[in-house]
Amino acid sequence: MKWLPIETAPKDGTNFLAFENGDVYQCYWMSEEGLTQRWRPLALDYHGCGCCGGSDIHPSRWMPLPEPPEGK
Description:
Blueprint: E1 4-5, E2 16-20, E3 23-30, E4 38-41, E5 61-64
Antiparallel strand pairs: 1-5, 2-3, 2-5, 3-4
């Protein structure tokens, strides 16, 4: 797989890998009525506090998640 320009990333809620300044995140496009549309790292949804909006990221590249391994 190759890194693709962020402009081509899905904006339908699909999770993917995003690259920003040497860091890689699993993220998705967040678009809710009345809120700012932005790339959101998936880890912010699961870190536990329930109130943190987190920091915006501004990735330059993306790639699809790899296929999971076969079997158990």
